[in-house]
Amino acid sequence: MNEEERENYIRAGEVIQKARKHARELATPGTNLKDIAEGIEAGIREEGLEPAFPVNLSINEEAAHYSPGVTEDRVLDEDDVLKIDIGAHSEGYIADTALTVNPSGSKDEMIEVVEEVLEEALEYLEPGITVAEFGAFVQKQIPDEYSAIRNLTGHYLGKYTQHAGVSIPNVDNGSDHVIQEGDAVAIEPFLTDGSGKIKNGKQGNIYKLETDRNVRGRHERKLIGEIKEFQSLPFSSRWFDDFGARQKMALNKLVQADVVHSYPVLKEVEEGTVVQAEHTVLVGAEDDGENIVTTRR
User: Has 163 been annotated as catalytic?
Assistant: First the structure.
């Protein structure tokens, strides 16, 4: 990792630290989910950066990949367990973070556990360990009453790439991939009081360009031109000006043609409650060889 890359990762992390604080302020009972997401995203843009993906607001048994749509009518309930997953990028270098809030406090113990597991994982992470060793360590930190979600993982980060090839699980997956100095990784344990597996649910209002091959239809071609501005990162229909019926139809056609991927909401198979915590780490990137956790003060 060169100095320019390092500084861009750090810059993105500084903005995300502010976004985390703003997210907690916005996530109050009775607030429309769209207002929460757009408030967080607006804060990132006010700092001079762009979101790396639409803010995810996944509730209760939803583990990930729900982002409010243009006509969102859901509001946050005081008993909801809300996962807020936020990303920003500086010149393509991404800070990715997540926190869980529960306004009523009924799931505070569960949230504290996942945050403690994340902290233990960050202390253990260092150059030279394998992905399997890391996953086995994280798994041992989880109390018996909870399970790691086995098919949701952390991941490497790359320039304009949120998931850069290597997954970082929270269980031993047998991988002998060695984590090295200078790797940029998102560490994110997901815990549940359910089975520990997720399944695909309905579409979650998050999209990503899969290919830029020629498409038919004037509206589809125009929309592709706008989508390319997101530099291959995920996007939301909320991010287009005046997203109306024609644009919605064009987007649906692009999804049907496999030009654009539509992310489904990921739900716990037994409808168990899911909590999440996440930070971005530059492994061994400090001058003294320590990790830099870009998204944590």
Answer: yes
Q: What is the pLDDT of residues 87-141, one digit of tens each?
A: 999 999 999 999 999 999 999 999 999 999 999 999 999 999 999 999 999 999 9
Domains of the chain, start order:
3-200+265-293 (3.90.230.10), 205-264 (1.10.10.10)
Catalytic annotation on 109?
no
Strands 93-101 vs 274-276: parallel, antiparallel or unpaired: unpaired
Q: Which of 5, 14, 80, 96 is catalytic?
A: 96
Q: Residues 130-163: pLDDT tens digits?
A: 999 999 999 999 999 999 999 999 999 999 998 8
User: What DSSP assignment string belongs to 136-183?
Assistant: HHHHHTS-TT-EE-TT--EEE-BTTBSS-S-EE-SS-----PBP-TT-
Q: Which of 5, 188, 220, 268 is catalytic?
A: 188
Over pLDDT 70: what percentage of the chain? 100
3-state secondary structure of 69: coil
Torsion of CA 84, 13, 146, 25, to 10 degrees: -40
Nearest-angstrom CA–CA distance, 119 and 123: 6
Q: Which positions ≥6 away from 33 have C-beta within 8 Å?
A: 57, 68, 72, 74, 75, 76
